[in-house]
Amino acid sequence: MTPRPRNGSRSADACVIGGGLVGMAIALGLQRHGLSVAVLDEGDIALRASRGNFGLVWVQGKGDTQPAYASITRRSARLWPDLAGRLQEQTGIDVQLQQRGGLYLCLTEDELEARRRMLARMRDAAGGDYPHETLDLPQVRDYFPDIGDWVSGATWCPEDGHLNPLLLLRALTERFRAQGGVIDNGGRVQAIDRHGESFRITTPTGAWSCAKVVLAAGLGNRELAPQVGLSAPVFPNRGQVLIAERVRPFLHYPTGHVRQTGEGTVQIGDSKEDVGFDSGTTTDVMAHIARRAVRLFPLLRDVRMVRAWGALRVMTPDGYPVYEASRDCPGAYLVTCHSGVTLGALHEGPLADWIARDDTDLPLEEFHAQRFAL
Amino acid sequence: MPNASPFERLPNRSRAQVTVFVEDEPVEVCAHDSAAAAVLAAGLLPSRTTPADASPRAPYCLMGVCFECLIEIDGAPNQQGCMIPVRDGMRIRRQCGARDMHGEGAHDHA
C-alpha cells in the first residue's frame, strides 16, 4: 500500500490535503478500503485547529436549526466507542474517551429557559428521540458537589462526552503510518490540476498524482476548493482556552465551558471572536473566561493557570459542515467542519466509505456549499 | 536527612543564612536561594511525584519553565519552588501527585 514513485512524481490512490483530525480520520478510513493514501500537510506553520481545540464529543444543542447535522453528530457519537477501541488495540494509545453524559451550565434563568426550549424543539424535530433533561441547581449538585450557588441549572445529555484530542491525533497518525500511509510535510499545496482521470498536486517539494483528492485543509480549503470546481466559504473564528494545573478529580462529567482531563488538568473555554487569522490571546477575554469558570466552580478561584492559547475554528456562514463531491472534477471531495473531534468517528467511518465507494446513506445533499449561494 | 546533594556552592554572593524546614528537618540555606535550591541542598529526592503515574521528580530547569520543582510551601500545594525565594522559617514539603482542592486548610480563603 506504500505509494511508489512514478515519472518523477509520487503517486497514491488518494491524497488527503491536511493532516489534522479531519484529514487523518478520513485517511485512516480510506485505508480500510485498501487504498494507498498520502496525507499532504502544510507543516508546523499551519494554523492547526486540531492542536488547539477543547476535546468535547458533544451532542446536545448541535444542529438546532439543521436536523441533518443533529443526526450525523449523534451518529458519530455512537460510532466513537468502536473507533476508540480499535485505536487502543492497534496503537496502544488510550484516547481517554468518556461518554457518560455532559452538562451545559447556565448562570441565569433566561439562559436556562432558552436552552430548555431549544432542546425541546430538537426533540420534536427528531420525532421525540432526543434524550436530555433540564436540571435545577440541586439536581446539578448531584453531578457536581462543587457547583457554585450562582448557577441556575443545566441541561444534561447522556450522549455527550470528551476525549484527549492530542492523543487522538497521535493515535490516528501512528495507525496511518503503521499501515504504510505517507505523511508529506513538504509545505502548502500550491496547485491541484486535473489530468485525464487523475489529479496532479504540486507541493514545494515535488508533485503527487492520485485518482482521488480530499480537501481537509481547514481554513486552507478556501483557496484549494476553486481549483477542483468547488467552493469553501470558510472563515476563522477564534476561541481562547485556559489551562490550569493538574488537580485531583473534581469534575466527573464534561461541561460546555470547563472539563477535566484524565491526568487532572483543568481546561477552560470558550470564547468566540471574529479577529481574522490572529490566533493569539487577550487579557480581557481570558479574564472573562476565568471569571465565568469561578462562578461555575468557586473552588477554581485559587487554582493556578499554567497556559493559555488561542485557536481558530473553521467556520461556515451557518456553522454547519461542508461535505461535497466535485461535479466538474470527479474524484475531488471537500470536507470541512469545526468539530473534528465530535465528527471524527463519522469521518473515519461513513464519510470515508462515501469517498471510497462514491455511495452513501448520509444526507450529504444537506451539506453542499451551494446552500450559501441561494 | 542525609545530604545527597552534588551541588557545590560558589562564593559569589552574600553568605547570609536562613533556616527552612524541609519535611520538618531544619536546613541552613543562603538567604537569596530559591525554595527549589533549598530542596536540592537538602537532598530531598524525589521532591514530587507526578499526577499522571506517580513517577518521581526533582527540580530541573530552575527557571520557571518545566514545573518539575512543584512542592508544598507553608501549606500551599503545587508551588513552583524555583520561582519562590526562601524565607526564614519556611516549611517545605513534597508534592505527592495532584493537588486536592478540597480540604486545603492552610490555603482555604473561605
TrEMBL record, chain A:
Gene Ontology molecular functions: oxidoreductase activity
GO cellular component entries: cytoplasm
Keywords associated with the record: Oxidoreductase
Pfam family membership, one: DAO
Domain called FAD dependent oxidoreductase: residue spans: 13-345
UniProt keyword Oxidoreductase present: yes
Oxidoreductase in keyword set: yes
InterPro entries given in the database record: FAD-dep_OxRdtase, FAD/NAD-bd_sf
Name of this chain's protein: Opine oxidase subunit B
Species per Swiss-Prot/TrEMBL record: Halomonas beimenensis
From TrEMBL, chain B:
Signal sequence region: none
Keywords, ordered alphabetically: Oxidoreductase
SUPFAM superfamilies per record: 2Fe-2S ferredoxin-like (SSF54292)
InterPro entries found in the cross-reference section: 2Fe-2S-bd_N (IPR042204), 2Fe-2S_ferredoxin-like_sf (IPR036010)
A GO molecular-function annotation: oxidoreductase activity
Source superkingdom: Bacteria
Name this protein carries in UniProt: Opine oxidase subunit C
